[in-house]
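Notes to self, diguanylate cyclase:
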Amino acid sequence: MDLSEKDNVENSWAHCISRVKTGVRVKDGLGEDYLEFKAELVYLNWIRGTIFGLLSIFAFGLIMLFDLHYYQTDKWEVSIGYPILFYSHMSVFMLLSGGIGLAWMKRPEKTERPSHYHHVLITAFLWLGMLNLVAISIADVLISGSTAAYIGMAFSFAAIFIISNRFCLFLYLSNMAVMVYFVNVAADYTGKDFGIQQINIVTFTVLAVALSRVLYYAHVRDFKNRKLIKSQKQRLLELSNKDHLTNVLNRRSFAEISEVETARSRRHAGPLSLIIFDFDNFKCINDQSGHSAGDAVLVHTAELIQQNIRKTDILFRWGGEEFIILSPETALEDAAALADKLRLLIEEYTFPHGVKATASFGAAQYTHGESIEDTIQRADKALYQAKTKGRNCVEQLPA
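result:
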């Protein structure tokens, strides 16, 4: 193994260890989005479980009336399956009522991290619910030899709830084992052969697991696609708001940000200043050194300005070789001082290809009652004055 391969292996291990230390789980190809995906499943299963539970409470309430009817007609004396049915139906009814009550006492929110409370609640609800339905199926086997209730329940759970691989196997295989065991007990008790029923239980459990996995991974793909679309939209939004050459905010984003800043200035009665500048004789740079050199001047200027203004100051490319700086909480005199500092930095800076350049600056302060366009016009007039006075200077124009 050469040094580069060794470095790649070490970097891979270091990356994996760092992900483990930070609690990031790499699962189902979701990476750092796994917790958000799990939170979505908890919320989705809570919604589906609530609807399923309310409908089931109504259904099992009616079914228990039939159980009482069987009791009145002495059916309970015919087969032990009838009292098992009644108590199983009652158990499911109480489980659903209690589960829905606990779930609605603390409703989950749509967050990026799963609710541990609701995750445990849904897990317990699904396992106990299926176990009770297994008891109902055993009663049906004792009465009629049918496992239709178990099969229908297995497929219903697989189609309704989106659960992880590990819990899916535990849920279905544990209840399948319980079902197979008690079918054997029923066979010994009744003296009947339930071999075909056992084959059906295993076969349809495997099919239910397969259906559950198909729907789970379909949801994984859907989640990943939605995340991809969201990130692409975010990227497109960033591209639409940034200048493609200098990577600073563009004229379009200025309208949105300036509206927020002027509103803040009015609300807090704080100063807001604006600086506009462009290069002197920029056409000469393009003509003498080429357009690539001119582009390099713009790119390096954007970087230079960003490094020498406050975090609250915002740089925009206004168009061509013209830039605007929006300075919140800055009076006109301070904005002019900042402009002069930037002017000197540009004058002293040596751009790629040995290009030297200067820029002229105009500054104006936003006045409450005017529009930001009025402020821009005054800053632009100040810039024009700087140009007429010999360039490479700063002018300010009060309201």
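- Confidence is low (pLDDT under 50) at residues 1-26.
- The longest helix spans residues 195-241.
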